[in-house]
Design brief:
By secondary structure, this protein is an alpha+beta fold. Strands 2-1-3 form a 3-stranded antiparallel β-sheet, sandwiched between helices. The protein has 3 helices and 3 strands.
Length: about 80
């Protein structure tokens, strides 16, 4: 199983979108500072996730969300 996920940092009030096949491990790595793009926002919380059968589906959805470049769109996904 693969996931497209959205993290939120209360510290920065920012969202981060990614994909993975292991949500628990990926969140731990974000919060351990493994990713340069999320290091400054620690701690991160998963606020949204979608499940996919293949990595390519999860990646496609991640890029679709990122292309919107819209906080309102992300908030609408979370609040559904």
């Amino acid at each position: 199983m693969y996931y497209t996920y959205i993290l939120h940092s209360e510290k920065l009030d920012k969202f981060y979108t990614g994909h993975t096949n292991n949500l628990k491990l990926r969140l731990e790595r974000h919060n351990d500072g493994w990713s340069r793009s999320t290091k400054s926002g620690i701690p991160w919380k998963i606020v949204y996730k979608e499940k996919y059968n293949t990595k390519s589906e999860a990646m496609k959805r991640e890029y679709e969300i990122k292309r919107k470049k819209s906080r309102k769109y992300i908030e609408s996904l979370i609040n559904k």
